[in-house]
Amino acid sequence: MQLRYAFRVYPDAGQRVALARAFGCARVVFNDAVRAREEARRVGRPFPTVAVLSRKLITDAKRTAERSWLGEVSAVVLQQSLRDAETAYRTFFASLKGTRKGPKVRAPRFKSRKDARQSVRFTANARWSITDGGRLCLPKIGAVKVKWSRILPATPSSVTVVKDATGRYFASFVVDTDPAADRARMPATDRTVGIDLGLTHFAVLSDGTKIDSPRFLRRAEKKLKKAQRELSRKQKGSKNRDKARLKVARAHAKVADARREFHHQLSTKPIFENQGIAVEDLSVAGLARTRLAKSVHDAGWSSFVGMLKYKAERYGRTLVTIGRFDPTSQTCSTCGVKDGPKPLNIREWTCTTCGTVHDRDHNAAINIQQAAGLAVSACGASIRPGAVPAQREETGSHGLPTEPRAA
């Protein structure tokens, strides 16, 4: 499978100028492609193809005085920007037709130089390379210093250079991994586990393990409020406002990086120790519209489940997602009798049929494991039929993950 490995890079002053030029040229080509297609739609003409746009917006444009500066960057960067516009339109139309799973996607918009994230992509034909000294050599940019936190398992097929809102630069490599080698790294086991996600405890496992919720956003809330208040008091367009904006961005990035690190470490352990993992398909979008919205977003359940999904696929494990309407908190995991709904303030309850005293979250984790068909009851029979595998896809961000992300 394809994975994405992200590393921090440290360009010098001249390389930062060259990267800013590349970001700007890629943005202009993308905006020109969107403008050309919107004009064609407005007058009722067919959309111009990528080949036509490439010739008009890149090859011919370089010969004009207004766009001659496009020749100062690698042509591959400009071609990839056109491909990004093509992909954005293809995704938009698939969303309109209903052939794309997930929420609706809006039409491509114009990019701005003030966007929080700037990026350019170099494919193999750009002839980028990694030097013997460990630097990343990019065409018309130079050899950029890289902080290697691990070894790439294979030769990358492309590299994307990203500048985030805090001014940090990252090199994100796409690597094709060997499935057999990945699965050989995992120990053979027949263990299974059910995971109940929550807010009081981030996760409770069916073996009784409880993992506290770190509440990264809540812990940093006081500092974030102070930084945001200082930003609101700065005059728009001033240098002090730029400094304050950077301070806010860095505070949010620190929270996001800590949460991502926590998710990676927590998702790797059950994959390493168990052959089968069961989770519940929570309605995060619905819960985010309640008074618990901030805590739900702070927990980041979707990101955690997304990591479980691609790691299970990579290492040959089985991940099963049960339906969100399965009464896991109402059913006795010992005898299987449904005991009715219970308020959230009730954390322990006693089964009226068999008399078993249950911890609410632990009982739910066991029921999730049983509902997924990964566990059996005391009499040796499966308590509920299995559920279908998870279909939800997650996208990551370009931070500093402890594990690679799925490309």
Summarize the structure.
The protein has about 400 residues and is α+β, with helices and mostly antiparallel strands. About 40% of the residues lie in helices and about 20% in strands.
Main features:
single chain; 407 residues; alpha+beta; 8-stranded antiparallel sheet; 5-stranded mixed sheet; 15 strands; 18% strand; elongated
Structural class: alpha+beta
Question: What's the pLDDT, averaged over the residues?
Answer: 88
* Global Rg: 25 Å
Shape: elongated
Low-pLDDT runs of 5+ residues are 376-402
What string, H for helix and E for strand, traces the elements in order?
EHHHEEEEEEHEEEHHEHHHEEEHE
Beta-strand fraction estimate: 15-25%
Structure description:
It contains 10 helices and 15 strands. With 407 residues, the protein is of the alpha+beta class. The strands form 3 sheets. Strands 1, 2, 3, 4, 5, 6, 7 and 15 form an 8-stranded antiparallel sheet that branches. A 5-stranded mixed sheet has the order 10-9-8-11-12, sandwiched between helices. Strand 4 (136-138) and strand 5 form a beta hairpin. Helix 5 (216-232) runs antiparallel to helix 6 and helix 6 packs across helix 9.
What's the helix and strand layout?
Blueprint: E1 2-10, H1 13-43, H2 50-59, H3 75-97, E2 118-123, E3 129-130, E4 136-138, E5 142-147, E6 158-163, E7 169-176, H4 179-184, E8 192-197, E9 201-205, E10 210-212, H5 216-232, H6 239-273, E11 276-280, H7 284-287, H8 293-299, H9 301-315, E12 318-322, E13 348-350, E14 357-359, H10 360-371, E15 405-406
Parallel strand pairs: 8-11, 11-12
Antiparallel strand pairs: 1-5, 1-7, 1-15, 2-6, 3-4, 4-5, 6-7, 8-9, 9-10, 13-14
Helix pairs in contact: 1-3, 2-3, 5-6, 6-9
